[in-house]
Design a protein that fits this description.
about 140 residues, alpha+beta, Jelly Rolls, five-stranded antiparallel sheet, 4 helices
C-alpha cells in the first residue's frame, strides 16, 4: 500500500527550521499501515528535509555552520541567471537534499528520543512550502 499526502507549512526563509514530525506521524496513523516507511520530500530547490534535535540553540548552530559553507551576500554565479540573490539558498539546499525516509514499526516513526523531522527553508523570503509525504507499508 502506498498513500501520498501533501502538507503546507509557512516559512520565514533564511534558514527557517520547521518541525513537521507530528504532521508526518498523523499521516502514518491515517494510513493504518503498521510497518513501512515514510518518505518526506519538499518540492523546491531552495529547501531541504532532514532530522535534527529541534532545540533553539542547535537550530542556531546549524544555521551558523551552513552560513560558513555558503554565506548569504556573496557573489554567486546563479545571481546572473535570474537577477536574484538566493545562490546561497540553492547551495545549502543541495548539500542537505530535498528528502528523507523514516521507517516505522507498529505505526510509530522510528526516530531517536531527540530526533525530529524538519523542513529547512533557505530562500531569501518567506513563503508557503509544500511538503509531500508518501507512506509505503502494510
Amino acid at each position: 500500500m502506498i498513500i501520498t499526502e501533501k502538507l503546507s507549512v509557512r516559512s520565514d526563509g533564511h534558514g527557517d527550521v520547521i518541525d513537521v514530525t507530528a504532521k508526518v506521524q498523523e499521516i502514518v496513523d491515517k494510513s493504518k499501515a503498521k510497518n513501512g516507511s515514510a518518505l518526506v520530500f519538499v518540492n523546491g530547490s531552495t529547501a531541504s528535509v532532514s532530522t535534527i534535535e529541534y532545540e533553539p540553540n542547535l537550530v542556531k548552530d546549524l544555521k551558523k555552520a551552513l552560513d560558513k559553507i555558503a554565506p548569504y551576500g556573496e557573489d554567486y554565479e546563479h545571481h546572473k541567471t535570474w537577477g536574484d540573490d538566493n545562490g546561497s539558498s540553492h547551495v545549502k539546499a543541495t548539500l542537505l537534499g530535498p528528502s528523507t525516509t523514516i521507517p516505522f514499526e507498529d505505526g510509530k516513526l522510528l526516530l531517536g528520543t531527540w530526533q525530529q523531522v524538519v523542513v529547512i527553508d533557505f530562500d531569501t523570503s518567506g513563503r508557503q512550502r509544500e511538503v509531500i509525504v508518501q507512506v509505503s507499508g502494510e
